[in-house]
């Protein structure tokens, strides 16, 4: 069965996968089954545009293109075979074979059509496949065994049941689980070693989404629609992956006879991206991408820097899984309320610091991307403490955290790279009488400040009177003994030289 790509799973529209589907006649379930069995090796018709083989061995249907190993029937053979002198025989220089079983244990410099997309989780150094929800055979409920395949732009929908318990515990309902720490692998590689950052394509969320929560008999902020936009080049390499998620609220008490069911829609769209210019600086660029998670070190391992997660109930949580990652250049402001447990001033401060900072205090931030980035120290200004302070005299406690990150564009004007220069944790403090009976409001803000400094013209930002390409002076012109020397790999035209002379001398040429 050539279309049986997923072991022990009923492949959608695979009409011969009767063993896994447990149905003798799959035409009763699938609408694309052919009326008669196809022999030979087949692929979808849209994948084929030319085959240098004997036409007598070719069978074309509405949806498939098949090549037989030999003409099986005399009646099917042409009465006067065409002259095929000079053409290669089947199996000589042209090899047409069925796809092997679904696996990622292959290594090539490109993806082929229908290759499964590999994923890599850098925090855990775990390999995987990009699996997307799809309806199970003979039903509508979602299964997570459907792998995304290269160049297969598909849309499907399935249903999930939601209960009070699964509302906050089922990761499939949480938008965060569709992209956290996950990267696509640029080209297929063998799963024997950690993936270099040069082969990792981060999944970039197009927005920030709150986590699901149960409130007043409703499950809020559950995933209703997921859309992956995956870019690729003509060489078969992945270039980017964007994720969009649509959330919905589900009433858990309106239907008393059965559990609430939510219809989820899934879209995978492949877009042809323009090939990057062949430049050594471009391949060596390790600057941060807009929207990529800011990373820190935790127990010797890189992990995303996080901040307070959004909560519909408004209560603070010290659970690390409920925190939201800080995305590069995305300014955020979050807040929550907390009822402090009884304790002395030191215990109260520790409780609040854990909520604001997380379980670990960030000491360094990655200045750039890559498996071995440069690191910058985080300056932390905490609240003052004294051994003499008591609950009776009042405790100085943090009530707000401001995370300020400085970054700048570095490198040539035509290829700037984004780098983090430094960061500061600044706590705002206030004296409280304890025990603190009323809920305490905690807030966290994240501010990214662009500190890029451009040199003065003509080596700075473009001016209206400039008549040469942007970034020309940053690479291609130097001064030696009063003479300007033009260098570079590209050709310099006379119009470019004259325009440069006009800029430097103020002369006009006609």
TrEMBL record:
Q: Give the UniProt keywords, A-Z.
A: Cilium biogenesis/degradation, Glycoprotein, Signal
Domain called Tectonic-1-3 N-terminal: residue spans: 1-57
Domain Tectonic-1-3 residue range list: 110-256, 287-450
The protein in question is named Uncharacterized protein
One GO term of the biological process aspect: cilium assembly
What lineage is this protein's organism placed in? Eukaryota, Metazoa, Chordata, Craniata, Vertebrata
Q: How does it assemble?
A: Part of the tectonic-like complex (also named B9 complex).
This chain's source organism reads Tetraodon nigroviridis (Spotted green pufferfish)
**UniProt family annotation:** Belongs to the tectonic family.
InterPro entries named among the record's database cross-references = TCTN1-3, TCTN1-3_dom, TCTN1-3_N
Q: Which Pfam families match?
A: DUF1619_N (PF25752), TCTN_DUF1619 (PF07773)
Determine the domain of life of the protein's source.
Eukaryota
């Amino acid at each position: 069965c050539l279309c049986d790509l997923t072991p022990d799973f009923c492949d959608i529209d695979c009409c011969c996968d009767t063993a896994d589907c447990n149905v003798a006649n799959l035409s009763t379930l699938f609408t694309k089954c052919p009326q008669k069995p196809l022999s030979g090796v087949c692929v979808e018709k849209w994948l084929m545009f030319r085959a240098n083989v004997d036409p007598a061995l070719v069978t074309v249907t509405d949806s498939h293109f098949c090549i037989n190993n030999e003409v099986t029937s005399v009646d099917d053979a042409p009465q006067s075979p065409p002259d095929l002198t000079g053409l290669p025989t089947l199996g000589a220089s042209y090899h047409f074979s069925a796809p092997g079983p679904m696996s990622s244990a292959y290594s090539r410099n490109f993806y082929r059509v229908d290759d499964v997309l590999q994923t890599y989780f850098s925090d855990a150094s775990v390999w995987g496949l990009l699996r997307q929800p799809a309806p199970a055979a003979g039903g509508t409920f979602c299964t997570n065994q459907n792998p995304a395949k290269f160049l297969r732009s598909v849309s499907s929908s399935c249903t999930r049941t939601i209960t009070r318990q699964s509302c906050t515990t089922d990761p499939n309902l949480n938008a965060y689980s569709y992209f956290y720490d996950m990267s696509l692998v640029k080209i297929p590689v063998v799963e024997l070693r950690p993936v270099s950052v040069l082969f990792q394509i981060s999944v970039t969320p197009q927005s920030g989404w709150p986590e699901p929560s149960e409130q007043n008999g409703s499950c809020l902020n559950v995933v209703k629609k997921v859309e992956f936009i995956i870019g690729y080049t003509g060489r078969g390499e992945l270039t980017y992956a964007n994720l969009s998620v649509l959330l919905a609220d589900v009433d858990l008490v309106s239907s008393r006879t059965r559990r609430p069911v939510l219809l989820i829609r899934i879209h995978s769209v492949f877009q042809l991206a323009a090939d990057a210019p062949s430049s050594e600086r471009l391949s060596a660029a390790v600057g941060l991408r807009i929207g990529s998670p800011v990373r820190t070190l935790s127990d010797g391992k890189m992990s995303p820097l996080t901040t307070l997660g959004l909560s519909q109930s408004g209560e603070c949580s010290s659970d690390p899984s409920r925190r939201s990652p800080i995305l590069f250049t995305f300014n955020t402001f979050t807040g929550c309320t907390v009822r402090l447990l009884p304790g002395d001033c030191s215990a109260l401060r520790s409780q609040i610091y854990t909520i604001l900072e997380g379980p670990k205090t960030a000491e360094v931030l990655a200045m750039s991307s890559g498996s071995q980035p440069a690191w910058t120290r985080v300056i932390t200004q905490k609240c003052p403490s004294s051994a003499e302070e008591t609950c009776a005299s009042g405790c100085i406690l943090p009530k707000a955290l401001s995370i300020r990150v400085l970054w700048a564009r570095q490198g040539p004007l035509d290829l700037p790279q984004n780098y983090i220069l430094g960061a500061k944790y600044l706590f705002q403090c206030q004296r409280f009488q304890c025990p603190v009976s009323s809920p305490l409001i905690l807030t966290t803000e994240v501010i990214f400040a662009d500190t890029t400094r451009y040199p003065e013209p003509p080596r700075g930002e473009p001016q209206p009177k400039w008549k040469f390409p942007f970034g020309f002076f940053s690479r291609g012109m130097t001064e030696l003994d009063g003479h300007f020397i033009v260098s570079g790999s590209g050709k310099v035209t006379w119009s470019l030289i004259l325009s440069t002379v006009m800029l430097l001398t103020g002369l006009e040429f006609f």
